[in-house]
Structure formats: C-alpha cells, structure tokens
C-alpha cells in the first residue's frame, strides 16, 4: 500500500534530550501510537554530510559530502528523485543546503528561496539560510506547502535546536528548551498530518556536545532519535533501524521503486 510521508529532521537533536524533553511526541509513545528508537548517526557527525546520508542512504565517505563546505549538487539518487520518478510530488521546507544538494547549486536566494518547478527533484520548496530562522516560521512554511500542494513526500527541517547547541552547548537550558519548543510547535500540526493520512518520521542528523559543536565519536554527538507515527509502522520495540536505512524505508512507505537498504522490522 502506498502512503504519503512527512519526514521531520530536527537539526542537532541529541537522543537523550529528545527522550526527556519531547513531551508531546512521548505522549504518543505512551499511548501506544508511536515508537521511539535510538539511531547512531554516520560519521562525520556534521550537517550537510548527514542530510545527504538521510536523504540518499549513502554514508558521507561514500557520497563525497564529507564536510559542510562541500557545496555542490549530490551525485546520488535521493528520496526526492525516487518519489518523482514514481510519479509522486515532493516538497521541502528546509535549510538552503538541501536545495543545493538536490535542486540547484550554489543557492541563489531570490531564485531558489521559493520553488515551484515540477522538473526539479524538490518540486515545491521554502528554503532559508539563517540558523536562527524561527522554527515557528519553518513549520508554518511546511504546512503552507502541504495545504497548497498536497505533496506525497514533505521534508520539514528546522534549525533552532542546533543553533542553541552551538551557542550554549548540550548541557544548557537554552538547548533543552529549544527542543521543548520544537515539540510544542510540532503539537500544532502532528495530529492533523496523521488525520490526513501521512506517515510521520521525526529524527535528527546529529547530536551536540558540551563544547558547543559536533563532529566526533562521543555518544551525545552521534545518538539521535527516531520517532515514527502512523498506521504503516509496526512499532516493534525490537526493530533496530539505521540512519542509512531511512531513505529506503521512506521509499517503501511511498511505494516508490528503489535500490536502497531499508528496515523491514519498522514496517507492518
């Protein structure tokens, strides 16, 4: 069965903070309507390489997107490519590096900030470039895309948690409260997405450390959450999804042919 999918990537969210700070998402888990898994992000634990990993299923050392300054179009097939080739519609409200990876590079704000082009991998988009761009605005951008275009695949990618971590560090009230704030904003949209038939995955690219950075092997840098919500998920507590399996798993949900690894146990 084919499903529409919303993939939320909460940039920089550490698993342990997600576990204790995301009260709304945890309410779904407690009610048996969602599951939370712990993923270990691939290396290096940096944003652009891990956007590529999540969206293509390819590790950074294999994709060539090995640090944040590698600014070019991806040479891999992404979720957006598979969806479009299956005749599905795609949209993203995301940081501009996502546009640079899959639509056009370099990012030209007047041309690329608002995208509506059925020939591009990301057909409809709202892209931002300031790390402090408010999460509230980003979620509203995403909902505008959903209501306006009814995409089969929607990426939602806010940045304020990561921004707070870089300014204040992992063990700070600002970082934890930024996660709580994202959870509260998500509460305004989540049930509506589920009622509209979307399968929802909420994850992160990497975590954060007390040095106000991320790149290495510390658990707090590499361990990230994966919440799954929707009637296509098994909610099997024994499932052990990997970050490299997210692309293929979403393709399975979409019913889009693909050649990526995926986590069978995550799905019914």
Automatic annotation (TrEMBL):
<protein>
    <recommendedName>
        <fullName>Nucleotide pyrophosphatase</fullName>
    </recommendedName>
</protein>
<dbReference type="InterPro" id="IPR002591">
    <property type="entry name" value="Phosphodiest/P_Trfase"/>
</dbReference>
<dbReference type="GO" id="GO:0016787">
    <property type="term" value="F:hydrolase activity"/>
</dbReference>
<dbReference type="InterPro" id="IPR017850">
    <property type="entry name" value="Alkaline_phosphatase_core_sf"/>
</dbReference>
<dbReference type="Pfam" id="PF01663">
    <property type="entry name" value="Phosphodiest"/>
</dbReference>
